[in-house]
Write the structure tokens for this entry.
Amino acid sequence: MEPPPPPRPPRVLAAVQSSYIPWKGTFDLFRRADVVVLLDDLQFTRRDWRNRNRIKTPRGPHWLTVPVCIKGRYTQSIRETAVADPGWAERHWRTLLHAYGRAPRFREVRPLLEPLYRECREASLAAVNRRFLGPVARFLGIGTPLRDQAEFAPVPGRSERLLSLCLEAGASTYLSGPSARAYLDTALFERAGVAVEWMDYSGYPEYPQLHGPFLHEVSVVDLLVHAGGEAHRYLLPGGGPAGPRGTGDPSP
């Protein structure tokens, strides 16, 4: 009996810093990749998407922020960033109940969301973010594996690090968010035989949304409570990488 063939290397790799309940565009990026690497060994940045995101409320957009230990820890990585107050999850859940309890599909997604909050015991920000990313992706029908940066050999340099991830994983294409256009050395990738493709976050359809004028730049939770099992229909059409022009990325 012949042994099974080795697994096919991923064609498309994407790499992102983990974010707290990120917007729908993050999951579109996941959907278009064969593997996603979470860059949680990078430095934690304050007032960023790593530990907070927005929802809509009757009083307007509202930030949900995971409290983290930052005093005197100016160079800590996302992985090293500790949760400062274990009571945050229950407070966030109560806020979501108040903001979205009357949303049309809230009852449908409550069995997904409530345990994620009420059973959350993770002590690090990276673990908190990972806790939410996987189940939400699966709810949206996205099975792309999420891998840790720590699984790969460390390489200095922004572009060099990302190229190294592609080469080590055997990927032939690097899929990037548009904000990386400011620094990514595409010539480096070209010389190594790795193509670079850019996400285009324009063209999202609107869905029925509570609390005033429609707003795209909110947490994916907003999409889930309004669209439920139909949420995947409000992601970008198609499953392949987008074209060369990327716009509207609120989450680096």
User: Anything to note?
Assistant: The chain has one domain: 12-232. The beta strands are 12-16, 35-38, 52-57, 60-65, 146-148, 173-176, 195-198. Residues 12-232 form one domain.
